[in-house]
Amino acid sequence: MRVNHRIRVPEIRVIGSGGEQMGIMQTHVALAQAKENGLDLVEIAPRERPPVCKIMDYGKFKYEQSKKKKQARKSSSTIELKELKFRPKTEGHDMDFKIRHARRFLEDGNKCRLVIIFRGREITHPETGVNVLNKVVEATKDIGVVELKPNMEGRRMVMIIAPNSETLRKAKQRKQEEAKKAAALPPAKVRKEAERAAQAAAELEAANKKAESEAEEAKSE
User: Fold this and answer.
1) Is pLDDT above 80 for 6?
2) What is the pairing mode between strands 111-117 and 81-86?
3) Which of 74, 73, 77 is CA-nearest to residue 162?
4) Least packed by Cβ within 10 Å: which of 89, 108, 122, 124?
5) The pTM of the whole model exceeds 0.70
């Protein structure tokens, strides 16, 4: 996109800053009018004959375009695969904590990879892992579906659950609304929201590491 003195053609069709048609003009004349109003002359249709240019605030235009791209990325329907790690004996507070995360992942439109970590002789009782997975499925059946049934990968049992169609629709709509709200938030509020998300991610990472640690302890017994 050529701007101001980079527009080399001698004659152009001009659109005013308010969208009005100003007709065909000499380029230097249009440029002078733009400068007189503290604006820029921007080529918007270079292949037309003559090329079409618009008088506008080019800096503001670039900022708004950048803002729209960021909003589009935030509201996109890209699906991530989140991972939650369990032990065959996961229950109580740990189970409730991870179910809450599983529900949040699904409600955000993401898939969830559930991993049961076996150690030592635990592998001889795979049904204990299936029981844990079934609890998660039961607790999320209103918003999710089983995409990949439990299967063994070495000493780990893996299952994938995904949001159902209604949950996906709501997630996409919510992301679009959140992107609009975020664009209007002051920087301090944006930082606070980012810090909250980072804290939640750190808590989940700690819970997953705890499952790994417990599995190592069981292995050494």
Assistant:
1) yes
2) parallel
3) 77
4) 124
5) no
Contact 144, 162 (CB under 8 A): yes
Which residue do the tokens 């329907």 mark? 77
3-state SS assignment for residue 174: helix
Q: Could you tell me the two tokens for 30?
A: 């249009």
4 CB-contact burial (10 Å; exposed 0-12 / middle 13-18 / buried 19+): middle
Residues 100-113, mean pLDDT to the nearest whole number: 93
CA 192 to chain centre: 18
- For 75-186, where are the alpha helices, taking DSSP H only? 92-107, 126-140, 165-184
> How many Å apart are CA 25 and CA 131, to the nearest integer?
77
Q: How far apart are the first and last CA of the chain?
A: 68
Domains, in order of start, for the chain = 4-56 (3.10.20.80), 81-220 (3.30.110.10)
Residue type, 209: K
Tokens encoding 15? 């659109």
CA 125 – CA 116 distance, rounded (Å): 12
Determine the pLDDT at residue 217: 62
Q: Where are the beta strands (DSSP E) in 29-95?
A: 40-45, 52-56, 81-86
> Residue length, the chain?
221
CB 88 within 8 A of CB 116: yes
| CA gap 70, 14 in Å, rounded | 30
The CA-CA-CA angle for residues 42, 44, 50, to 5°, reads 100
Burial class (CB in 10 A: 0-12, 13-18, 19+), 217: exposed
